[in-house]
């Protein structure tokens, strides 16, 4: 008769295997710093990028994002910090793997195609192995970027958008673990950018490459990135998914980087701040603190009833305030209306869908979406 008694505890435990640990991020940057003439142009920068994701270093010119990219590429040395690829050290302030051995691809704004080489030769330039295999890999990528019909053409015969796609194919041909892109779309016609960005993003996702994109354009970062690393003065001041960065900015400058903003000012009294649009809760700030209440133009509502004292206050909008139209312009899909406010003469901007062009001098009541306001202590 077979033995049906339960297995001993030790034997059962041996059959239970722990799940494998998650893989390390494809790119890890730890406490990176670069100092020029005593100034920290890159200051304690840390982040990671998993395989198959797009991270975007976003910020104004001179904030340190391109220097960070050059250090990761290996064309510039850091003064502090280290870089790892797939958990393995690539460089610190002592150890350094040469750039050509890092399996990190580069793609820049000017494309840098070789004019004396055909399209297929450009794409295959960084490949090794038999000529037939190199051409096969190049042809495969040219098919993916819809340029197979230009395989034997030369760069001068291509448009700017086509040259950009050749440069992308060339950067991806050696199957880099990481692709660094420095303002790669800024030289393109604005009408082409969205389509080419979408095609590029699709190809990068399919290849499973970790991508670090540098740009100063918020719209580009919002469209392409899985995570945005917002830089200012050499530091990362905020990081997160595009939705979170946009809807929960860390300060006034972060909010203003993504769109026009209106600023209301006031002083805290008993955890409250009075404005022309009613009272705002400002807990945790001492009395007398000057605050700035930030509201984007698309979150200002216009009441078209010009009679009486304006609409009644509501919990959603608070008190209405009266403004006089200073200027109105149709922007294509929306209208931008500027108001001079009665209470202090300041200018507030409102964005209205479609066509709305009130005449200058017309008085209207404005309300603001309180759930879309950001309150910050005033700095500087």
TrEMBL record:
Q: What top-level branch of life does the organism fall under?
A: Bacteria
CDD domains according to UniProt: ABC_Carb_Solutes_like (cd03259)
Q: GO terms for biological process?
A: quaternary ammonium group transport
Task: Give GO MF terms, alphabetically.
Answer: ABC-type ferric iron transporter activity; ATP binding; ATP hydrolysis activity
Alphabetized PROSITE patterns for the sequence: ABC_TRANSPORTER_1, ABC_TRANSPORTER_2
Record flagged with keyword Cell membrane: yes
- Positions of the UniProt region annotated as Disordered: 1-25
Name of the protein in question: Iron(III) transport system ATP-binding protein
